[in-house]
Amino acid sequence: MIKLIVLDVDGCLTDCKMIYTDNGLSAKHFNAKDGLGMRSWLHLGRKIAIISGGKSGAIEKRANDLGVNYIYMREWDKLTRLKEIVKKENISLDNVAVIGDDMNDYKMMKAVGKTYAPSDAVEFIRDYVDTVVSSRGGEGAIRDMIEDLIKQEDLFSEYIKLWN
């Protein structure tokens, strides 16, 4: 049973574009469909962690708005951070699903029960994961992952009840 999903940000939760203004501010694009999927997952009693190599106030704001349980940025060793979360939650790494798109996600992906990648992930990651979703990063990939898990975990009727 998957109890925790871990999301990479750039290339999964966002479209991987980095936008900087002349005065040094940065911006991120998020997909509302991903957000609704994340809220649904949380309402089903499951947990979400964001573990990112980057850092942005926009990531923190979006995660807090959605009620994400764990937010870690500037993490180069994502697996070590994940092990801390798993210990705190008293679950196994087998109870974790990860979505990632690039090499900095690989070590963490090797340790968990289920792996996903957006359709535009780097080839090595696409070839490695259990499931490549049909959407690109930042364009519904997180929602695709969550809906796949909802079906696999036999939560679809509970998912529909959330919106009935």
TrEMBL record:
Q: What is the protein's name according to its record?
A: 3-deoxy-D-manno-octulosonate 8-phosphate phosphatase (EC)
What EC number(s) would the UniProt record show?
3.1.3.45
The residue ranges crossing the membrane are none
Q: Which GO terms describe its molecular function?
A: 3-deoxy-manno-octulosonate-8-phosphatase activity; metal ion binding; N-acylneuraminate cytidylyltransferase activity
Q: Which SUPFAM superfamilies match?
A: HAD-like
Q: Which lineage?
A: Bacteria, Pseudomonadati, Campylobacterota, Epsilonproteobacteria, Campylobacterales
Say if the entry is tagged with keyword Magnesium: yes
Which of UniProt's keywords are assigned here?
Hydrolase, Magnesium, Metal-binding
Which InterPro entries does the record match to this protein?
CMP-NeuNAc_synthase (IPR050793), HAD-like_sf (IPR036412), HAD_sf (IPR023214), KdsC_fam (IPR010023)
What is the required cofactor set for this protein? Answer: Mg(2+)
Q: Which residues does the annotation say bind substrate? A: 10
Q: Which residues bind Mg(2+)?
A: 8, 101
Q: How does it assemble?
A: Homotetramer.
Instruction: State whether keyword Secreted applies.
Output: no
